[in-house]
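Deliverable D4.2, example record:
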Amino acid sequence: METQVFNSIRKGKVAKGSLVDRKSRFIALVKAVASPEEAKSFYEAISHDNLDARHVVYAWRILDDADAIHERSCDDGEPSQTAGLPVLEVLRGEGLVNVCVCVVRYFGGILLGPGGLKRAYAGCARDALKDAAEEGVLCVVQKQSIFCTSLSYKHMKTFEHLLKSCKGTIINRSYEDEIKLRCAVPSSNASSFNESFQDVFRREISLENEGSAYGEVHGES
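Output generated by the structure prediction step:
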């Protein structure tokens, strides 16, 4: 079965968008999150930083290891389905997972009506995603198999070439008597990577598969 591919925001990055409609000011912030707890912490931090705001709306979509997408939104006192849901629909439309968007509204004294609210919240979220694209913080995530091994220094270049040919990335490495490596390979390439590794190193070097997880896809290792 073909590996599913999704869009997301790079870890540790925050994109920002803004919009003004009839004197109400909307500010959207979008960040990568890996769990509902991380989404909650992000929302609480944004709320704390904007205590004077009338509303702080959120929406998040999170992908678990069983390929199920969990999502939630909150209107924070706005009329039902006029704030959080329009933001969530933007995330759905862009195929984004493992992200949380918070939209802060500073009320300008003029009511926008249900339609106006939906357009404003969705438009502000789109502006944040536009910023993410312009700043290069949008990324692709897909299921990856995690491998670890220990290599002598003389084998490092061969290993890097092999890993790159399978579109894998090095997650971390430590230098001791040998180089200890932990890497990620797209799950669709995992069997090929394992077979090539055994052929190249003639089964003299062990390669351990630690399972799989969704992660960012990078251009090179």
